[in-house]
Every structure is written in structure tokens, then in C-alpha cells.
Amino acid sequence: MNFSEKTLERMKVLTELHGAPGFEDLVRNYLREEFEALDVDYINDGLGGIFAVKKSKNENAPNVLVAGHMDEVGFMVTEITDNGFLKFTPLGGWSEDVLLSQRMSVRTNDNKELTGVIGSVPVHFRRGESKDTGTKIKDMLLDIGADSKEEALEMGVNIGDSIVPNVKFEKLTEDKFLAKAWDNRYGCLIALEVLEALKDVELDCNLYIGANVQEEVGLRGAKASANLIKPDVAFVVDCSPANDMLGKKDDLGKLGEGTLLRIKDGTMILGKPMRDYLLKTAEDHNVKYQYYLSPGGTDAGSIHVSNDGVPSAVVGICSRYIHTSHSIINKNDYLEAKKLLTELIKGIDEEKVQELRG
User: Fold this and answer.
1) Is 174 within the bounds of a domain?
2) Which has the closest alpha carbon to 303: 14, 10, 68?
3) pLDDT tens for each residue of 282-341
4) Is 285 annotated for ligand binding?
5) Cα–Cα distance between 246 and 331 in angstroms, integer?
6) Is 207 in the same domain as 279?
7) Structural domains counted in the chain
8) What 8-state DSSP symbol labels residue 269?
9) Which of 137, 153, 207, 233 lies at a CB distance of 3.0 to 4.6 Å from 54, suitable for a disulfide?
10) Is residue 172 part of a domain?
């Protein structure tokens, strides 16, 4: 599969959109516009997940759900101090050591985005035996340039506003791209582009393809979409942490080594029939892949135990430094994942569903 300028532009738009958990509307609006441009029907669940619908001509076709998630790890404003700083609470998993001095963007009720920086005490003024004791998130302050609570309010900030990193998409090399929110605007992108690739293909399944909300705070949106769609098979598309910085041969999750065959994580074990289907499809279509394990989880953790149980798999890529302000992917991993997902969907029919159910 070729990499197009259109894909590059979609990457830029999606990763730069502001979309913390519970505040995914800008990402959802973008996906809706893209679905409408492709002239496809779509549905929403009650929490805000959005899915394009491509029906099969087969009367008893099984339902296939392909789900990314729109949200990125972020924060919520919890207090405005008298001298104009903002206190905040995390939305999703953050480590304190990646936050100090980082540029952030606060989205106000009237949809303005205000730049701020998470304040850090200069090393010259730190006291005690250790100057690297670490600052807890509860003690951090976001500086948006206001000198008072009144000024911050006049700027449009309110308690409950969302905060995400302020980072622009950048092409580092021909293959590597830097951005915030690869976890999981990758999933939004691949869902959109696989839908586009399959638009004129007759399928033996009803395809529901799009993205959930609030994955980063407990796989919440996946529960709603699975209850709405009632899938027979699910493919979750998510971005996982790379572990290749030391260059060891046994590292799991290497940029440039292909899509991830995620055999186990903290929320799901890949079933043998599904594992065999992924492997055969990858081998038959010359897809580059790598095995992957993770202590974390994905929306598949909720979907595979929904209704009466749903055979599920994750079609993912890895990214360096996810759950920080800056992350890096390799475009070739994306292309391999796109090829695999496209062929997996094309191979689903009633007989395959029964096989996957064991």
C-alpha cells in the first residue's frame, strides 16, 4: 500500500485536534465530516462513539466492529488560584516526570485554546538534600500568563475545562513522524482509511468502523458501542508503547518492524482461533508483523466480554513515548497494519465467525 499526501494531511489534522477523555467532540466532528465526504451512513452511541456503517448484501451477514478511540491522555482544570495559575487532575495515565515545563493547551467553553506551561521550580531555588525529589501532579500549576483569578476568568478559563499537550505534527524523517496523541489518533486514521479502501468492495459482513470515547479512563466508550452494535467479531485498532530504545534483539515493540500481533495484555488474551486467523492472513498477504505483549489494555478488553462474548483482536502499531507530550511512529508500521486490517475484514463471513468462536 502506498503512503499518500492525503494520509499525511489526515495525520496532521487528527493528531493536532484537542480531544481529552470526555471532550472528544472535535475529533468526532472531523470523523463525521470525513464519513459524509465518503457518502457513507454512520451511527452514534449514547456516549459519543461514532461508526460508519457498510452493510452486506447477504441477509444473515455477521456484524464486524472495528474500533479505535478518539480520546488522548489529558487533564481537567480543577482550581484557579488567586494569582491566576491553574490546578488540574489527570484524565488518563501520566507519569510526573514527563510533565514539568511542558507546553499545554487549555480549551475554553467558547472553543478558544490558551497556551500554558506546567511550572517548575528552577534548580537554583530547590531546597533539601535532593534537588530531584519529583513534583506530584496534585502540586503542579499551569501558567497561562494570568496575574489573577479574575484575569484567568476573563481569558475564558473555567473549572472543568480540558487540557492537552500543545504540540504540532512534524515529519522527522521520511519514515518517522512526531506528534502528540498517536495513542490513539492512529486508530481514528486507520478506521477512516480502511473504510475508504473498502467503500466499493462487496463484503460478507456488516462493517461498523469508527472510534469510541473515553478509552483512557477505563475502556468506557467500548461498553456502549458493543451494546449498541452487538458485534460477532471485533478488531480494535490502538497504539502501544514501543520498547526499542536500547536496541536489544529481544525488545518487544520496535519501530519499523511491522504491525503488532498482540497475544496478551492486561485485559485480554488473544484466543487461539483468532491468533491463527491473524497469522494466516498476515502470511497469505505478506504483512510484516511482530509479536507483542503489554501490561496495559485496549478497548478489546471491554468488547470481548460484551453481550455473550465476542472474538476480538488488536491490530496495532507501536509508538515511542506514548502518554507523554511527544510520540513517534514509523509510517511503514501503519501501512502494514492497514493492509492486515483490510484483509481481515474481507475474510469475515458466517463460516469464519463460527470458526473464530471455537
Assistant:
1) no
2) 68
3) 999 999 999 999 989 999 999 999 999 999 999 999 999 999 999 999 999 999 999 999
4) no
5) 21
6) yes
7) 2
8) B
9) 207
10) no
